[in-house]
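FW: tagging you since you asked about this chain on Friday. Here's the raw sequence from the shared folder, copied in full. Didn't touch anything.
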Amino acid sequence: MGNNNNDKTDQSILELLEQNCRLTSGEIAALLDLEEMIIQQRIVAMEQKGIICTYQAMVNWEKTATEKVNALIEVKITPQREVGFDAVAERIYRFPEVHSVLLMSGDYDLAVFLEGKNMKDVAQFVSSKLATMEHVLSTATHFVLKTYKKHGCIMEDGETDRRLVITP
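HL: got it, structure written out here
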């Protein structure tokens, strides 16, 4: 029975950190009505197990002077004997431009999210590094034009107060 309670506590810690990774172990302890030392131990254990992978700020680059281009590349590949899609996916995710690689169901095998300085950078990456890889059958590049919501965070809230204005 105690193990189930630990799972629920770990899940609560993870949910809180996912919402706000800047929460201290003391703040989490207060929110969950537990001792801070227990929270610290749980967090360290989950970091060591690879459950908590990183702590990261969500930046809306569109509101800065920094120019960046993000793209989604659909990649069709031939799975390799014994390792399936894993070996090709690993070669792709090792490139520093690549932010995420996901195995997908449907029309293509891998979804590759990457970032470049401009569209030419992304096109160069796809044509010289990605499309030429062994076992890559085809690619389709989609450029991100605008991000509205990312990882649960609304990047640009166009919502204004929709209540009717009452004037005397």
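FW: The two ends are 63 Å apart (CA to CA).
HL: agreed, and Residues 123 and 141 are 8 Å apart (CA to CA).
FW: great, closing this out.
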